[in-house]
């Protein structure tokens, strides 16, 4: 199957301080039309625990969490060809216009990559981007076998530096 898949629009607070970049939504996320929709993906649990709240159930509540935390959320890829959900299967990707997002949101001080593949794709398409700090964090995907506690500790440490 060589069908082109399309990602989602960015979600952002009014004055985001951090841009979190993934690669491309998973098959489950695309089916649900929601960022990080796989029930075993730790993304929303990590953010909620940082805020000291329970993980939101409704997607609208998750979007509000991003906005209240002054974050921006997007993916490196606008479109790509990929079978399944593995980042290693991404090919023929077209990147999102991340430089314009950064220009339009000068409050962004750092880009957090949700896993190494996101950083690799970003640097492939935007090798000279140096306007903000960069930090590669452990992927929140269930494919990353690092414990939830370790993922939380690392993400919380990074978030504390910028929020």
Q: Your description of this structure?
A:
This protein is α/β, with parallel strands linked by helices. It has a single domain, classed as 3-Layer(aba) Sandwich (Uracil-DNA Glycosylase, subunit E), CATH 3.40.470.10. It has 6 helices and 8 strands. It has helices spanning 27-32, 43-50, 59-68, 98-104, 116-125, 148-162, and strands at residues 4-6, 11-12, 18-22, 71-75, 77-81, 91-95, 110-114, 133-137. The longest helix is centred in the C-terminal third of the chain and has 15 residues, at 148-162. The protein is globular, with a radius of gyration of 15 Å. The chain starts with a strand and ends with a helix. The model has no long low-confidence stretch (mean pLDDT 94).
What's the layout of helices and strands?
Elements: E1 4-6, E2 11-12, E3 18-22, H1 27-32, H2 43-50, H3 59-68, E4 71-75, E5 77-81, E6 91-95, H4 98-104, E7 110-114, H5 116-125, E8 133-137, H6 148-162
Parallel strand pairs: 3-4, 3-7, 7-8
Antiparallel strand pairs: 1-5, 2-4, 5-6
Helix pairs in contact: 2-6
Summarize the structure.
By secondary structure, the chain is of the alpha/beta class. The protein contains six helices and eight strands. Helix content is 34%, strand content 21%.
Number of strands: 8
- How many separate helices? 6
Oligomer: single chain
CATH superfamily: Uracil-DNA glycosylase-like domain
Strands in their spatial order, largest beta sheet: 2-4-3-7-8
Residue runs with pLDDT of under 50 for 5 or more positions: none
CA(first)-CA(last) distance: 42 Å
The largest sheet, given as strand count, sense and whether it forms a barrel, is: 5 strands, mixed
Shape from CA axes?
A: globular
CATH class: Alpha Beta
Question: Cα-atom Rg, whole angstroms?
Answer: 15 Å
Calculate the mean pLDDT score and round it. 94
Order of helices and strands: EEEHHHEEEHEHEH
The amount of beta strand, in percent, is 15-25%
How does CATH name the architecture?
3-Layer(aba) Sandwich
Helix proportion range: 25-40%
Task: Indicate the CATH topology.
Answer: Uracil-DNA Glycosylase, subunit E
